[in-house]
């Protein structure tokens, strides 16, 4: 089976074709709008969807051409139905439904966070259900007991800012550009992770929810107290201390969830999972747990994750989208 995947939940426009016989992505294209939004210090929804309207058709044409197959050999068109920015989601949904009508192929609405999770099935050594999943992106921080395709129990989630959002806001406070995660990771390499005593939010509570806004505020007060202009050593030390506070919080919550569920595999995903420091800290701290993570470029939003998730959804429950509908807010446990 060949599934075309279209990702437009936020500011990326990603397209890919998945071949289920080889479990491989045979072609993929992505257009990042990061330079456009960095001028504003964050994503401007109206600009994001306008750009996607113009990029989607050429990206789909290029992806098809590079795959070496014709549109007759595509067995389904998957798109991100939610959660995400409504304008951006509508661009992908409308495009996918029109293609599906034109080509007479099923149209599959995919949950963005399920796609971040299922992209791990593309790896040479994939996890097997059930497993614990830690999804950390710009919009979500989730701990999930993944029982099977479409079968998820949300064990914990953020009560305020998502992890990626905290990275982006702290980067802004430190005068770094958008998206903040990779920028913080870069400067943190030169800093001391123990330079500042920042809080580890909610780690002593007996639930599995997260909260990152207090950590962000602690960074704000540390910056306010520092003599101006702030120097690069201060920025590196604070970035490294912030990154360590996030890493430790994720480790402690994951440990707790592993203990409570008895699960032995941890799958990570979402943009923040691209952070090498966090990956290494999880690895060294959870040494009795098998950790699965996607390729770095498959952590942030991409078309491949939607194509893979679309295939598994179609196989699991062949529901196709007749109408153009998106779900900007959509709980994973509703699947
Ligand atoms: O999954 P994603 O591409 O989009 C959403 O679904 O939200 O995640 C984007 C988020 C951004 O907040 C970005 O700053 C963060 O992932 N991110 C990182 C890194 N790369 C991207 N955070 C920390 N370290 C990174 N290397
Ligand atoms: Zn995402």
What is this structure's SSE topology?
Layout: E1 2-7, E2 12-19, E3 24-32, H1 34-38, H2 45-67, E4 76-82, H3 86-103, E5 107-111, H4 112-118, E6 131-136, E7 141-148, E8 151-157, H5 163-173, H6 180-188, H7 213-225, H8 232-261, E9 265-269, H9 276-285, E10 290-292, H10 303-316
Helix pairs in contact: 2-3, 4-10, 5-6, 5-7, 5-8, 6-8, 8-9
Zinc ion binds next to helix 4.
Secondary structural class: alpha/beta
Number of DSSP-assigned strands:
10
Radius of gyration: 20 Å
* Number of helices in the DSSP assignment: 10
* pLDDT averaged residue by residue: 97
> Strands across the major sheet, in which order?
3-2-1-4-5
Spans where pLDDT lies below 50 across 5 or more residues: none
Tell me about this structure.
The strands form two sheets. Strands 3-2-1-4-5 form a five-stranded mixed sheet, with helices on both faces. A five-stranded mixed sheet has the order 8-7-6-9-10. With 335 residues, the protein is α/β, with parallel strands linked by helices. The chain is built from ten helices and ten strands. The longest helix is centred in the C-terminal third of the chain and has 30 residues, at 232-261. The protein binds 5'-O-[(R)-(carboxyoxy)(hydroxy)phosphoryl]adenosine and zinc ion. 5'-O-[(R)-(carboxyoxy)(hydroxy)phosphoryl]adenosine (KG4) is lined by residues 10, 137-139, 164-165, 167-168, 179-182, 185, 270-272, 274-275, 300-301.
